[in-house]
Amino acid sequence: MRDDIKINERAKTLEQKLIEKLETVYDPEIELDIYNLGLIYEINLDENGHCKVVMTFTDVACNCADTLPLDLVDTLKTIDGINSASVEVVWHPVWKLTRISRLGRIALGISPK
Description:
By secondary structure, the chain is an alpha/beta fold. It contains five helices and six strands; from the N terminus they run E-H-H-E-E-H-E-E-H-E-H. It has one domain: 2-Layer Sandwich (GMP Synthetase, Chain A, domain 3). Helices cover 28% and strands 21% of the residues. It has a four-stranded mixed β-sheet with strand order 1-4-5-6. The chain has a two-stranded antiparallel ribbon with strand order 2-3. It starts with 5 loop residues before the first strand and ends in a 5-residue tail after the last helix.
């Protein structure tokens, strides 16, 4: 898991599956997945199998702000051990280009440094 994503111990048990699924959910405007784009801030899984994700968007006027969280919820619920999911969208801290992973920078043609 990325160092800049806060994740609780229960969610860590599903870490690899979470990463795999997060990498399948794309920001349609930037054409990069939300994991490598750095939109995910926090992942918590409770004892009842509810997964809560705290995320942001690159801009407050993002056209996908209504649909992308719903897509993410549907994707998370396909993971064994996650019975339900919710997404909290936050605007602080503000997303910055520095949140894009090295892989994401390469995919977007940005210097990987």
